[in-house]
Amino acid sequence: MSYESIRAIDTATELYAVFGDPIGHSKSPLMLNRAFAAAERNAAYVAFHVKPEGLGDAVRGVRALGIRGVNVTIPHKLEVMPFLDEIDEDARAIGAVNTIANRDGKLVGYNTDGIGYVRSLKEETGVALRGKRVLLLGAGGAARAIAYALAKEGVATIWFANRTREKARALAASIQAYTHTNVIGFDALDHVVGQVDLVVNNTPVGMYPNVDETPINPELLHGELLVSDLIYNPRVTKLLAEAQARGARIHSGLGMFIYQGAYAYEYWTGQPAPVTAMRDAVERVL
Ligand code: NAP
């Protein structure tokens, strides 16, 4: 830590934090401290390793200490909800919170994963999502946020494929008010990949250190697809490399990470996030 950044902390410094278990891998402190520095805001962002049994106490600590805002990551995105005073409508529909804003003691929960993803996808690929047919691989927390955000963008159909079929069914049921849905097994993917425009990997398959794995057989990929992977370590997963080799357009998870943080910054401060500085901070360490 530089002398300047230590010196900047005084009695007026606003505190922000991330809660997760584990938390050691998180790039959020680097990214958000860089954002506060770029905006010349007297604020600091720290990581707390919060175990599930300590989550309620941790949230009470947010109130007691006047922490201004918190990011919530695995495994607390669902469990944190009962401890909050208010849940934003989108976060309630998604069923998960990844951002808490402390508004004069009232704790409000938001979800910035889905909107962060869609902003990154549209800005980096120029895709027009209305009417598109989508295949989502995985049905965990990230898939919930992304399915909801894509449905709100007006995609025509979402196919859900998940290792545990029941979770895909539950997710499809919760989204069907917003778009047309289908649930399929991984064994039926060969019938579906040829019919869709966008494939999104919402599973950790292919993430460092398992960089030689792909969530689906790469031979199914074709040149008409846009293939998107939420993983950003590595930046180009094997799934994306295989897609690109077959002429498909690709989209990495790094932009989602940056924009979910940027929306959190904007909810907390009411100011536009310094996105270029945030991206630079993360790219330097990947
Ligand atoms: P999660 O809630 O734990 O869900 C994981 C999903 O992946 C589940 O559907 C699970 O299937 C599936 N899965 C796990 N291992 C699998 C395997 N070996 N084979 C097939 N499917 C498998 O996690 P999450 O929060 O949704 O995160 C999912 C991924 O998105 C992670 O890689 C995470 O790093 C990434 N992510 C990225 C960002 C970003 O900003 N770029 C943000 C959030 C998440 P089951 O239901 O069968 O267990």
Annotation keywords:
globular; Rossmann fold; binds NADP nicotinamide-adenine-dinucleotide phosphate; 2 domains; 286 residues; 12 strands; alpha/beta; six-stranded mixed sheet; 11 helices
- Largest beta-sheet details: 6 strands, mixed
Q: Give the low-pLDDT segments.
A: none
Architecture (CATH level 2) name of the largest domain: 3-Layer(aba) Sandwich
The share of residues in extended strands comes to 15-25%
Ends distance? 19 Å
Rg over C-alpha atoms, rounded to the nearest angstrom: 19 Å
Distinct compounds present? NADP nicotinamide-adenine-dinucleotide phosphate
> What shape does the CA trace take?
globular
Counting helices, strands and paired strands, the structural category is alpha/beta
Helix content: 25-40%
Any idea of the CATH topology of the largest domain?
Answer: Rossmann fold
CATH class of the largest domain: Alpha Beta
Strands side by side in the biggest sheet: 2-1-3-5-6-4
Q: Total number of helical segments? A: 11
Provide a descriptive summary of the structure in words.
This protein has 286 residues and is α/β, with parallel strands linked by helices. The chain has two domains: 3-111 and 256-285, Leucine Dehydrogenase, chain A, domain 1 (Rossmann fold, 3-Layer(aba) Sandwich), CATH 3.40.50.10860; 114-252, NAD(P)-binding Rossmann-like Domain (Rossmann fold, 3-Layer(aba) Sandwich), CATH 3.40.50. Helices cover 38% and strands 20% of the residues. It is built from eleven helices and twelve strands. Helix 2 links the parallel strand 1 and strand 2. Helix 5 (113-125) packs across helix 10 (254-269). The mean pLDDT is 95. The structure holds NADP nicotinamide-adenine-dinucleotide phosphate (NAP). The site of NADP nicotinamide-adenine-dinucleotide phosphate has 24 residues, from helix 6 and helix 10.
